[in-house]
Amino acid sequence: MTRPAFLPTPRQELLLQATLFSGDDARSAFEEWARVADLESLDAGSVRLLPALYLNLKALGVTHALTPRLLSVYRSTWYRNQLLLSRTAAVIRLLAEHDMESVLLKGAALAAAAYGDPGARPMGDADLLVRRKDLRGAVDLLLATGWNPRPFVSARVLDSFLRTKHAITLVDDAGRELDLHGYVFYRSRVETLDDALRERSRPTTLDGVSTRVLAPEDLLFHVIVHGAEWSGVSPVRWVADATCVHRSAPGFDWNLVVESARTRRFALASLAGLEYLADAFRVPVPPEALSALRALPVSPLEAEDHALRSRPPSLRGMARRVLVDYAFIAPRESTPFAARAAGFPRFLRDRWFLESFGQMPGYAVRSLGRRVRGRFFRPS
Fold first, then answer.
1. Where are the domains of the chain?
2. Under the phi-then-psi rule, with left for phi > 0, alpha for psi from -120 to 50, and beta for the rest, what region is 168?
3. Are 183 and 189 spatial neighbours (Cβ–Cβ below 8 Å)?
4. What is the pLDDT of residue 363?
5. Which has the closest alpha carbon to 87: 218, 200, 23, 175?
6. Contact of 17 with 53, CB cutoff 8 Å
7. Is the CA virtual torsion 17, 19, 25, 27 positive or negative?
8. Rg of the chain on CA atoms, in Å
9. Which CATH number fits domain 10-300: 3.40.50.1110, 3.90.1150.10, 3.30.460.40, 3.30.450.20?
10. What is the pLDDT of residue 379?
């Protein structure tokens, strides 16, 4: 079986062990990694782990020639994260003033609930979940206070865009990004499941502002599903994220993770992630939970989706992924085929951030040309 592309390489595993293990295990992993590490050419996914590596080495009393560079990365991350989290807290306060409850997702949630240090994990943006019925109002409120969609989406097609997407990216005048979610997952849009997740969320504070954060089981599940996917930037920090979430949560309920995998149709991604964490990083996943995941039914759509996301995309794979993505959000089988097919052009227009259907042929040709050139005419 081909190794999924979202799993760490051997060298990345050494870095993760140095970051997550304790005692001599961490020291020996760091020494082996540092012998071949070149911070100037380090891949972007590994760079994201350096602040947490610095904190673990500091706790172990380890000093090295790389320590000043690691300290510099940590301090820079801490500073940028503080600015982003402060801005996010202001958004949470603004939404609350207009009776819109929000829940922290992804990096902001991990900073608040798992890592224990705002500089431990770099964040390119912050993610907030609002109720689906509040999404358009929340977007309008933020647009009125200086935020803008990225890429640009005009008011004329905004409603259609929000129906197609699970979240919208907004950027302020300082370049800080916020992903405002109407659903937690792109491929699992069931409001009752998101409502249950919201009910399980826990109170916390962010820069002095009261808010909520996902329950540990939901946060770990979100981390694994989001991480179990090939990316141009290696997504290896999902391993550190998931490990830290579990360590922060005594009494962790694995049955809830299994149930989430069943109801949201992410059995394969959940199983792949948890098997790896148990085998390579000593996360104590109960055998019963792994057996339960293996026993879950898997639809052909889920199997194809997982296979496509587990490897770098080919040209054919990219086309298949568009169709699979639409299948997850299209009207259900009870809807006449003609009605389901009629929604596909609007899906493509919104996926491509276009203003009109007339722009679609030209965009498709240009996009295909870029892909072909990138694949067959790489510079030597």
1. 10-300, 330-376
2. beta
3. yes
4. 87
5. 175
6. no
7. positive
8. 21
9. 3.30.460.40
10. 43
**H, E, C per residue of the chain:** CCCCCCCCCHHHHHHHHHHHCCHHHHHHHHHHHHHHCCCCCCCHHHHCCHHHHHHHHHHHCCCCCCHHHHHHHHHHHHHHHHHHHHHHHHHHHHHHHCCCCEEEEHHHHHHHHHHCCCCCCCCCEEEEEECHHHHHHHHHHHHCCCCEECCCCCCCCHHHHHHHCCEEEEECCCCCEEEEECCCECCECCHHHHHHHHHHCEEEEECCEEEEECCHHHHHHHHHHHHCCCCCCCCCHHHHHHHHHHHCCCCCCHHHHHHHHHHHCCHHHHHHHHHHHHHHHCCCCCHHHHHHHHCCCCCHHHHHHHHHHCCCCCHHHHHHHHHHHHHHHCCCCCCCHHHHHHCHHHHHHHHCCCCCHHHHHHHHHHHHHHHHHHHHCCCC
The token duo for 222 is 């979100």
- Are 52 and 240 in contact, with CB atoms under 8 Å apart? yes
Spans in the chain with pLDDT lower than 70: 1, 331-339, 371-380
Task: Look at residue 268 in the predicted model and tell me its pLDDT.
Answer: 97
> For position 134, what pLDDT does the model report?
96
Quote the tokens at residue 271. 């199983």
Angle of the 23-36 helix axis to the 10-20 helix axis, nearest 10: 140
Q: Is residue 351 within 8 Å of 322, Cβ to Cβ? A: yes
Write down the pLDDT at residue 184.
96
Give residue 62's Cα distance to chain centre: 31
Token pair 């989706």: residue: 305
φ/ψ of 149, rounded to 5, equals -70, 145
Half-sphere exposure of 19 (CA within 13 A, CB side): 27
Query: What digits encode the pLDDT tens for the residues 188-212?
Result: 989 999 999 999 999 999 999 999 9
What pLDDT is stored for residue 380 in this prediction?
Answer: 40
> Global pTM?
0.92
State the pLDDT at residue 373: 62
pLDDT at residue number 332: 64
* Residues facing residue 171 across a β-bridge: 148, 177
Per-residue tokens: 3 = 């190794």
Q: CA-based angle 327:105:209, to the nearest 5?
A: 145
Residue 210 pairs in a beta bridge with 205
